[in-house]
Amino acid sequence: MILFSVIDILGSIPIIITLKKKTGHIQSKQATLVSGVIMVAFLFLGQSILQLFGLDVESFAVAGAIVMLIIAMEMILGMTFFKEDPAASSGSIVPLAFPLIAGAGTLTTILSLRSIYSVPNIMTGILLNLLVVYIVLKSSNWLEVKLGKNGFTILRKVFGIILLAISVKIFKENL
After folding, report:
1. pLDDT per position as a tens digit, 8-52
2. For residue 130, how far is the Cα from the chain centroid?
C-alpha cells in the first residue's frame, strides 16, 4: 500500500492520457519492465550508494519521509512542488517509467521501507505494484471514461492522506 500511494498510478492517469495523445502509443510492457528494473536495482544497490556518500539508512529514511510528505501535500492540496523537466523526451521510458513510476519518491520509499520491512516483503510489494501499473497502463482509456475527472480527484486526495500518515510513521520510527 505504501508503494501504491507513492507511485500513485491512478492519480497519474491524466498524465498518461496526455502522454498517449502526444506520442500516439504507450508501451505498457516496456514502461513496467524498466520501472521494475530501476526499483529492484535500487532496493539492492541503494544502501551501497548511501555508504559511498557516508549516509545511514535511518537518515535516508527520514529524508524519504520528508519527500513523501511533500508528495502527499501535492496530492491533497493540488499544488505542484516538483516541476517536470521540459527538456525530457516523451515516451514510455522517459517520463513514464522514470520519473513518473520509478521516480525519486518511489526510490526513496523503497530504501525507507528497507529500514522497516524485509527484502522479500518489499519485493512482493514491488511486483504487486508493477502488476497494477501494467493493468492501469493497459486500461487507462477505459479507466478515464469509467471514473471521470471527479473520481480521479477523489482517489488522489484519499491516497494523499494515506501517504501523509505513512510518511509521519516512517519519520517517527527513524528519527
Report:
1. 887 777 778 767 777 778 899 999 999 999 999 999 998 888 889
2. 11
Q: How many residues does the chain have?
A: 175
Q: Side chain identity at 150, as an amino acid letter?
A: N
How many domains, the chain?
1
Q: 42: domain range?
A: 2-81+88-174
Q: What is the pLDDT of residue 85?
A: 52
Q: Report d(CA 129, CA 151) in Å as an integer.
A: 21
Distance CA 123, CA 134 (A): 16
- Report d(CA 130, CA 90) in Å as an integer: 21
pTM metric for this prediction? 0.72
Is the bond preceding 14 in cis, omega lying within 30 degrees of 0? no
Q: Do the beta carbons of residue 35 and residue 97 sit within 8 Å?
A: yes
* pLDDT band, very low/low/confident/very high, at 84 (cuts 50, 70, 90): low
Question: How open is the CA angle 127-128-131, to the nearest 5 degrees?
Answer: 90
Which has the closest alpha carbon to 31: 98, 109, 120?
98
Torsion of CA 25, 27, 110, 143, to 10 degrees: 50
Q: Extract the runs of DSSP E, i.e. beta strands, from the chain.
A: none
